[in-house]
Amino acid sequence: MNFISEEELDVKKGDIITGEITKKPKKIIGSWKISYKALNIESNRQKTKNTEKSEEKNKDTKKKIIVMPESSDYFTGADWTKDSLTDYLKKLGFKDIEAISREPSESNYEKNIFSVYVCTGIFDHENSWEKREKIKARQKIKFFYNEKPMLTVDNCADLDAVLNNEVESYDEFTEKYDEWYVEFKADVTQNFYSELSGRSIVVVSGACRSIILNEAFDGKIDTSVNEGDQVIIRGKINGRKSKLYNGIYVDTLVLEKV
User: In 3-state terms, what secondary structure has residue 256?
Assistant: First the structure.
């Protein structure tokens, strides 16, 4: 078959032409002559060029080096979150980012990000880095984050509601946030000592009158507070004791004056 274009075309071997037949095919000397109008030409040269560009880009990515603006320790603590750190690393040029959740403990509950590493070698050895250190963009960045960030009135509307007595029952809150760490401001209503129970400090926050603290005090508990003082409380919500006291019971870790 001979396909004959109605107009002169600038094509090379390997180009793909899409068109429509404009006249009824005619058989001339044992061969069909088919007239057509070209609608689109896909250039093999352009495809080759695009492929070369793509391959070159992949080579650049493999070779790309990122100069770290901060050390790995800079990203640990309370200033970063899982999402903000992930977005930041992507903007730097990293593609392989692994975020792993971990339960908080009394020693690190105030942190959102526990640790950050770059993985090297075939066994993904975890290594920290220093400021201005050079890291290949293709390497994996791994970090461990707090799966239960410390609750405050700024990041937890539920806490703000219960502290202002805007809920009918505390049960739903204590069941949802049992064993979560929390921070809030409160007013001291009692500070007393008895041989039976030791020292007890009772506090109230907003309209909530059932936040009770009765702990084994250490250096992080200011026992000098008086009735009427405003304090900051940090501790862990205890669901079992909350039901016992019909309110919110916090195992206190920190009690300090505002």
Answer: strand
Tell me which residue of 196, 133, 191, 185 sits closest to 159, measured CA to CA: 185
Highest CATH level, class, for 157-257: mainly beta
Count other Cβ atoms within 10 Å, centred on residue 17. 14
Domain boundaries, the chain: 1-63, 65-146, 157-257
CB-based contact 208:248 (threshold 8 Å): yes
CB of 245 closer than 8 Å to CB of 174: no
- For residue 121, the model assigns a pLDDT of 85
* Across 60-82, average pLDDT: 89
CA angle 100, 108, 127 (to 5 degrees): 50
pLDDT category at 179 given cuts 50, 70, 90 is: very high
Whether 93 and 104 have beta carbons less than 8 Å apart is answered as no
pLDDT the model gives residue 30: 61
**Alpha-carbon span 92 to 137, nearest angstrom:** 9
| pLDDT recorded at residue 169 | 78
Q: Which fold has domain 65-146?
A: Trypsin Inhibitor V; Chain A (3.30.10)
CB 19 within 8 A of CB 38: yes
Degrees, nearest 5: CA angle 218-222-223: 90
> What pLDDT digit, counting tens, does each position of 211-223 carry?
555 555 566 888 8
